[in-house]
Amino acid sequence: MGVSTHDLASFKTLHTAVRRRREVRFAYRKPRSTTEEERRVRPHHLACVQGRWYLVAWDALREAMRTFAIPRISKLRLLEQRFERVQGFDIAKYFGNSFGVFAGEGAIEVRIRFDAYASRLVAERFWHATQSLRPLPHGESELTLHLNDLHEVTSWILSWGEHAVALAPEELVTRVRRSLAN
Q1: Domains 8-90 and 108-181 share a fold
Q2: Which pTM value belongs to this model?
Q3: Which of 41, 60, 67, 181 falls between 20 and 30 A from 170, CA-CA?
Q4: What is the pLDDT of residue 4?
Q5: pLDDT for position 110
Q6: CATH of domain 8-90
Q7: How far is it, in rounded angstroms, from Cα 87 to Cα 42?
């Protein structure tokens, strides 16, 4: 795994914005985009997820909380405009059913079968608050998770190679098959 890169000055500015409840403006480039978009947001939280730093902020234009990877932020400016935090915002709930930083709605039951080799490794770690690991014959196991997005769990399953098989939901099975076919 690589180490996330970000500019310490940007991190400090964002920390100040969260602490003092001040809006920020910046240019942001999404992973699949070749151009930057200007964003003006109300920073609520800085989060380190899987070794990478993210800003969770209210985006008034989109009328929703959004998650921004700090290394993709440029031309950052701390604004004078102050704001009140979104009533009831809770970072634990925001990321509650996420397998990483993609926060969706609802709960999708995900089931993955691991062979005997991977089962031992999977059992050694805590992967998600909703996880349930059921032993199967011949040392295999089935992991069940309740997530709100399939993007990051798809990549995770693929990282196990032939040692993991997506069982459910069908959308996840299709995503994994499509990735393997390419």
Answers
A1: no
A2: 0.79
A3: 67
A4: 57
A5: 97
A6: 2.30.30
A7: 13
- Burial (CB < 10 A; 0-12, 13-18, 19+), residue 112, is buried
108-181: CATH class: alpha beta
pLDDT exceeds 60 at position 35:
yes
* Strand order, beta sheet including 108-114: 132-135, 141-147, 108-114, 164-168
| Residue 106 exposure: Cα atoms within 13 Å on the Cβ side | 5
Which amino acid is residue 71, in one-letter code? P
pLDDT for 103 equals 77
99-to-92, 111, 164 alpha-carbon distances in Å: 13, 13, 17
The domain segmentation of the chain, as residue ranges, is 8-90, 108-181
Write the pLDDT tens digit of every residue in 99-109: 988 877 778 99
Residue 6: the pLDDT is 63
**pLDDT, tens only, 13-33:** 999 999 999 999 999 999 889
